[in-house]
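Example record for the data management plan.
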Amino acid sequence: MITKTLTNFLLLHSLLLAGLLYCSIADAQEWTWVSGSDLTDQSGVYGVMGTPDPANGPGSRNGTVGFTDDDGRIWIYGGFGLASDAITLGRLNDLWRFDPATGEWTWIRGSNLTDQPGNYGTMGIPHPANEPPGRNRPNIWKTADACWIFGGLGAPGERRNDLWRYDMTANTWTWVKGSSAVNQFGAYGAQGTPNPNNSPGSRNGAFEWTDADDNLWLFGGFGFGASGDPSLLADLWKFDASSFEWTWVQGSTGTDISPVHGTMGTPSNVNTPGARVSSVSWVDKEGNLWLFGGWVTNFIRYNDLWKFDPASGQWTWMKGGNISNQNAVLNIADPTNPSPDDTPGARNGSVSWTDVNGNFWLYGGFGLGLNGDVAAPLNDLWMYEVEENLWYFKGGSLTDLDQPPVYGTMGTPDANNTPGGRSSMAGT
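Corresponding structural encoding:
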């Protein structure tokens, strides 16, 4: 049996939920409510820093990011929501770890208050007092011995381009690259050439990959190109975690670039997903980088699936529509027998993960189901089989959108349980 753990936190219509859910990915999918509250607007219970406790738990939030370490423990960082009180919403900089073996949360680092300024210290020098400022929708990567965060949204209108490294053994943060100031233009340098002075512009809602060599990849988001006002980005970057240098790999230094899909299944130097935000991403067994969906405005979303080959530097449009706002496609009469046309609907803010067989999984987001043109929170579960180039629908509803959660009994799997329609979750 293949299993996967998800941390799901979200903000929907100003209602905050906090909960940890576990999905058993087998022939019959069953969700289990593992931790957290089934109520909204819950403050965090921080306890003693560094000490696990059954009563501990992060507060309600959205836009948090997370990863799973080599021991199977789940880590989350930041987001927008509630810290130690149930009144003050703001940007968070707390780092948490959940141990599935004990069912306990540990507050690892950061503040139990919102909107903290952090402490940059000296660039390149780890120190116990260093702490990134609070932020929403940053990027996060896991490498062999550390996790990294980049950018994100601070106070309204303030975006960051700072890169931080967290040493999980030493329990220290290091400010690695980028500025301690907000709203920075990108320093692109020469395309394809690493340089110590290169840096992506400030942004939030970008999406990321980690390759087999522990290089950090970054694409798009909303923020600053080489000049001008902040808007949607379509630039692709790579950070070498050994040399500490950024490389502008591909894409425009400007903003609001339209997609060029080309011919489905055919790579091309001209192809590009275009500028977008809040897509989801995967890495396949061959090291190709994949992305799905995302949005351009509140009324324009995509359901296209893309593959980037780092060796050739080419994008390939693999599945989905080459125009925006496409509904899901599914053979309702026999959903277990997928056709090449089957695909999730256009959306943003989904959660994604890869199973041990290399299949890509997708859950929820904000977008379109089978019918209609009004976007809503989604609770559909899909699997993409890479070698077959097929989407498999695995559960949830494609017709009744904005479904409420069904929690059931904590710790007990049930086919009727569901996280419900939600977006801006964290998943690992």
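Summary line stored alongside the record: The radius of gyration is 20 Å.
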